[in-house]
Structures are given as C-alpha cells and as structure tokens.
Amino acid sequence: xxxxxxxxxxxxxxxxxxxxxxxxxxxxxxxxxxxxxxxxxxxxxxxxxxxxxxxxxxxxxxxxxxxxxxxxxxxxxxxxxxxxxxxxxxxxxxxxxxxxxxxxxxxxxxxxxxxxxxxxxxxxxxxxxxxxxxxxxxxxxxxxxxxxxxxxxxxxxxxxxxxxxxxxxxxxxxxx
Length: 176
Description:
Blueprint: H1 2-12, H2 17-24, H3 28-35, H4 43-53, H5 57-60, H6 66-109, E1 115-120, E2 124-133, E3 136-145, E4 150-155, H7 157-166, H8 171-175
Antiparallel strand pairs: 1-2, 2-3, 3-4
Helix pairs in contact: 2-3
C-alpha cells in the first residue's frame, strides 16, 4: 500500500525515481524498493517524502484520518447546536424575567395618592392636591366657592389635563 502510494504520488509530481531519491537523500534503488514494498522508509524519510510529494504523512501511509475528523466535526457541531439551543432558552428565560420585572415595577410604581390641604375662608375653599405617580410628585391647587364650584385651579399640567378632560363642576368631586 505505501509503495503504490509513493509510486502514484511520484508520477503525479512528474518526478523520476532518481529525482525523488536526490530530494529525499537516498539511492534510486531505495526508492524502487519502497515502491515495490520490499522495504519501508523510516519516520525521518517519511517526513522528507511527504514534503517532496506535497502530502501529509497520514495520506502517504494511507492512514485515513479524514473520516475520523469528519465524524468528530459532526459530533462537535451537534454538541455546539445543543449548547446553542440551551443558551437561547436561558436567554429567553432571562429576557422574560426582565420584562416581567419591568412590567411589575411599572404597575407597582404607579401609586396614585394625594394629600389635601384645606383652607376655609368665608367666601371660598382652597384645596391643594399632591399626587405621586412613577416617583414624580404633582401638585395642584383648587379654589372653589361656597357651593363648591371651581373658581380657579392651577398646578401640574398632568393634573390640569385630567381636570380639563373630566370638567369637574365642583371642587369636592375633584378632590374625591
């Protein structure tokens, strides 16, 4: 097997036995003996032959590691694909947790509340609302007459829009 490989590769390279023997540093007869499988090159000569014939030592001695490498590559790819699937699942899980935490934070961060400060005069009432939403505090002042009709209101634009949209007629309704 080795001898026929040397013969075939030598002819493909267009080398005579004499030319190959000079490159490898042996006699022409030694090359002939190798090709006839009467003798075999030693490891150092195998290295020189593989360089001269431009092939690996494994290919030269017909040590078929190509299939082993292909199988190993296929197994490695399969393992990599499994690992990638697991990593993707973990990332989706983490992303789901993050989104859940964000949603819950938003839901629990909206803590509408208010503080009323009332001042009653004989002619009108003044109510100050303070409201916290998303860790922002809004303030609003409402002045109403004795029948609780709004005389004047001012403060945070956010609350002003609510007042405008709801068109509260009486200050007590707004405060409630």
